[in-house]
Amino acid sequence: MKVVIVAKTRMGGGACVGALTFDGRSLRLIAPDRDSNPAFNMEYNVGDVWDVNAEAPEYLDPPHVENVIVRHKRRLPPIDDVAGFAQRQMPPVAGGPEALFDGLAQVAGSGALYISEEGGAPPYSTMFWQPDRPLQRVEDAKRVRYRYETEDGGCTLTFVGFQDPIPEIPAGSLVRVSLAHWWRPDEMPQGELRCYVQLSGWFAPGNGAPGDGPPGDEPQGRVSFGDGLPPGANPPRGLPFLDEEPHSPSLREDDTVLIREAQQMDPAAALKQVFGFDDFRPLQEEVIDNVLNKRDTLAVMPTGSGKSLCFQLPALLFPGLTVVVSPLISLMEDQVMQLREMGVAAAYLNSTLDYHSYLGAVERIRQGGVRLLYAAPETLLRPETLLLLEQTPVDCLTIDEAHCISEWGHDFRPEYRQLTDLRRRLPHAVCLAITATATEHVRQDIKDSLEIPEAQAYVASFNRENLFLQVAAKTDILGQTLAFLRERRGQAGIIYCATRKQVDGLTEQLRANGYAALPYHAGLADDTRRRHQRQFMHDDVEIIVATVAFGMGINKSNVRFILHVDLPKNLESYYQQIGRAGRDGLPADCLLLYSYGDVHTINFFIQEQDPAQQPGARARLEAMIGFAETNLCRRQPLLNYFGEAYDEDNCDNCDNCTKEQQELADLTEAAQKFLSCVKRTGEIFGASHIIDVLRGSQSKKVLSRGHDKLSTYNIGREFSKKAWKQLARQFIQQGLLRQDMTHGSLKLTKKGYEVFRGRTVKGVLPQKAQRTTRSTSAAAGPHDSELFELLRARRRELADEAGLPPYTVFHDRTLVEMATHFPHTESEFAALYGVGQVKLERYAGEFLPIIREYFAGGED
Ligand code: ADP
Ligand code: ZN
Predict the structure, then answer these.
(1) Taking ligand 2, which is a single-atom ion, which protein residues have CB atoms under 5 Å away?
(2) Which atom, in ligand 1's list, is nearest to the CA of 579?
(3) pLDDT tops 50 at residue 342
(4) Is the pTM of this model over 0.85?
(5) Which ligand sits nearest to residue 277's alpha carbon?
(6) At how many degrees (to 10) do helices 614-629 and 596-608 cross?
């Protein structure tokens, strides 16, 4: 049976579709899988003709008798004059709402139009109407309604269609109305059941309307679905709210001009002109080239390596839109803010936008005023967004964090799976999948899922050379943290803890010690969390103490240190977290405090997991331990883990490589004492009890078991209890002892027995076990720190005025360059890192005078 689609309305994630047969029957098409398929029915468009094989469902609920389940369907060429067709097949009623649904419609106290069970229901639920007065849009936060105004009150219909709701639907337009489901408010169980009347779409007046000539004779023009503007209606661009997007400066006139110029540039010129960078970083150029040539691309680049540029730059050069799928709302907001500061027209669509901002963004996209559109996957998959994209030329579809599409990744997100469908809908867009973590398996998964088998893969080195990697034995969290922070006063950093409780506790202690620190974890209220993140981004607070919940989407470029006081679950997490430091390329410090106790805790959680996941989780934990316990360059286990061979003997930027030529002490005697005591107490005790015996404790536990009679009793007074703990840990780490994962008891290994037969044990003597940390200053290098502070203060003022985080004005690195090269002219200023055309114009006048004055003052 051939049908013409005459309406498409919103319904959950999918669409409810109204159709007319060629013999004048009204149908509502239902997909058989609509319960499992969130984007069901999206393939239909108003005006389409389909050949469908459909049957009525087992049960029909009057008046909703139009429902049919579509078993098979085939798209046929569309017809031009849907409105004329509709009018011929199902003539509309004309007049006021009293004519609707056999005159059964009534007006509720709220003004809403409805039919009631008691008042009588019509034998159908869909119809067309030509209102004799205009319908005016009214809105509240939740929905859009149209109002039919009369002197004695009028009435309203909720708008459920896919069109942009224009301010006024002129009188005489052909509109489609339908009945919602039977409903009564929960709080009124006694009340009557009602079906509210909904407005499901309109056609431009004149499209075959009686009085404009015989139906169907006129050159009809296509239906207004989509562009949403009946001829003569007020164009929505005049609406006052279009540019009102809170917290984001709107695009300026001159910016758009700049962007038009950028489209004529080659990539290298755009890099300098717009972004203010002189050179591409590794792989950026190759990826950009491939994308600009419209070849599908998979880019695997570590955090901080400049992934964003790989899609931001092509976006400037493509005539059409670049769509960026990003799972992290804060990240997309941040990037849009930074792009706007560079003069690039960017927008985002996500669940945080209110309706007005949403419409404003949509309108700018329609007008071609947006180069980059960031959107969360669930927003992109919404029917209205899909519709928007189908009607907009899209040149590039970028899937950021593409590993989320794979169940083998560590961050699988089911909604990413549906991007395949989006990809199919945009056949002219090149696909760029981009991620910071992807093993071979995940890479293949990404290609398969997105159906880009031919995609060229670019895999960058994961080596973040500017990060100093360091692991220290965890002996005293607060003491070690304070020592670490003391050398880093005034620098921004993140401290990661395993639990919320620890986060709160440590934050308190740091504050008590005079540090501006704020907590961040999933237990805090949303707005508190957001506020804390914002304060950190804006340099209002230096330290964030956080669980792993923090940092998703932290783009702050001047994070100078990451301190892990607890062991991350795996190297993926660790790498991602340290990746938040040093994005500006300046040195940054990463210290992990390691204790074997953390391994127990993590193992405990692994045991609670789905058994199928346990072996994988254990293996990942093993790799994490291997990294923490290695005596080699730390970059070796880390990079090996990500499939990258790292062959340098000495990276010169990790604790093991920079350690003074091995000052390892001979611990053989201590090891013999300890191991022997473990053996003699029966290999059923943990380290604490062994130490008590060695140190001659009079505790009940020791005496009651007769352990004071052992030959190893009281032979270890040369080390403190704490020192012995550190030694024990080293013995475990070196594999002389194995610790039972459930009880913590220690047992000798084969290697352990060899110690009694003369095997030497080397290690770190306890007083030195607490390795000293290297100190770096925020901006190491020979810059003028007094000037730097002046510049920093000015940056802060400018950022505050604009409501932006300071680094969106300039990165630290740019200020450091100012305080090193002392630019005096605009062309010198333009040569600085991160100074593009727009920033030159905006900020040269703000910073140059400070530099000039600084030197003028000095010469007096
Ligand atoms: P990620 O790969 O984590 O997404 P970003 O795209 O945020 O990294 O880039 C990290 C930092 O590097 C940003 O501050 C960005 O401005 C800077 N950057 C990117 N490309 C270059 C380049 N070619 N030259 C200098 N800095 C760059
Ligand atoms: Zn090293």
Answers:
(1) 633, 651, 654, 657
(2) 3
(3) yes
(4) no
(5) 1
(6) 170
